[in-house]
Amino acid sequence: TRMSKLKLIGNNTVRRVLKYEELIPAIETCLLNFSRGKIRQPVRSSVDIEQHKGVFLSMAAYDTVQDSCAMKMVSFYPNNTQHHSLPCIQSTILHLQPQTGVLLAVIEANAITDMRTAAASAVATKYLAPDNAKVLAIFGAGSQARSHFYALTHVQQFQEVVIIWNHTVPNGEKLSKEVSQSFKNVRFCASAKEAAVNADVIVTATNASKPFLKGEWLKNGVHINSVGACLANWREMDDDCMNQCDLYVDSREGALKESGDIILCQPKILGELGEVIEGGCRADRNSKTIFKSLGMAAEDVAASQLVWDKVKDTE
Q1: CA-based, 20 to 30 A from 179: which of 37, 137, 142, 223?
Q2: From CA 221, how far away is CA 288, in angstroms rounded?
Q3: How high is the pLDDT of residue 203?
Q4: What EC number is given for this enzyme (predicted)?
Q5: Is the pLDDT of residue 1 over 60?
Q6: Closest C-alpha among 263, 148, 269, 248 to residue 205
Q7: Cα-Cα-Cα-Cα dihedral sign, residues 176, 108, 124, 223
Q8: What residues does 88 pair with on adjacent strands?
Q9: Distance CA 301, CA 188 (A)
Q10: What average pLDDT does the chain have?
Q11: Closest Cα partner for 195 from 122, 121, 138?
Q12: Structure letter (DSSP) for residue 15
């Protein structure tokens, strides 16, 4: 094949072409193929940029079933929002042609990361949440909270959505205005307990490093999608919460290496979400469940392939 021109694809293009109705099934397939051992994915590597309180990560995967390959680079600077008015997380995907290793596209990955993470939680909610889940509670008011609102309301008819935030009030108000336009029953709440006790599905998408979600608040049958606390010494959920719930993960290897909630509490992992999808691991929807999602390169590959398929023939 001739060398085609390298495409640069921005977040706005990604948001325009990537739709949850295609992404959620693609991520479901990806999780299944991962648990079947069909995806080559080394554990992500990280470089500490301690002088600037930052971390730089790189993560790559090759999906042997879809024949697609990509690598994502992520920088995580927790102080960026406060000190520089920049996002805490910035990321870029290099999308390759598997047959030749040619670089096809450089894709801004903030939108992809938000959407593929939320899509994985939507798949988990489909398999683990109680059948008649009515109340969704989202902890956090950042871009992950936003993407989770759209992805989860895509797979489940909720009667009420409660968004909880405490320290970044302007963020919460911005998010509330936006989601209220597409969903009439949105409430905002400053109390974690008040939101948690009524919730059938909970999303924790915060920058918290200390646990804020307590097991004593949990309703029977609740399903929790936990996407924050992605460092080994960070937590979102207390021990009681971890121990009461059946625990599922995207990747055992990733969870045991990176999730503070798991490393510091040592609960039993019942299975990977892909094993639940496959049917080899039977999940009980009526018990309390957690999907601990660290995010995987395989999910970025699935999402970037969808984006590439949409834009490759455009100028």
Answers
A1: 223
A2: 4
A3: 94
A4: 1.5.1.1, 1.5.1.25
A5: no
A6: 148
A7: negative
A8: none
A9: 35
A10: 90
A11: 138
A12: H
Beta-bridge mates of residue 160 = 135
Specify whether the CB–CB gap between 11 and 110 falls below 8 A.
yes
Report the run of H or E that residue 308 belongs to, with start and end: helix 297-311
Alpha helices by DSSP H, 103-251? 110-128, 143-155, 169-182, 192-197, 239-244
Contact of 69 with 96, CB cutoff 8 Å? yes
Element (H, E) at 107: strand 103-108
210's enclosing H/E stretch is none
Confidence (pTM): 0.92
Q: Which amino acid is at 119?
A: A
pLDDT tens-digit profile of 211-226? 888 989 999 999 999 9
Q: Are 60 and 96 in contact (CB under 8 A)?
A: no
Q: How many CA atoms lie within 13 A of 310 on its CB side?
A: 17
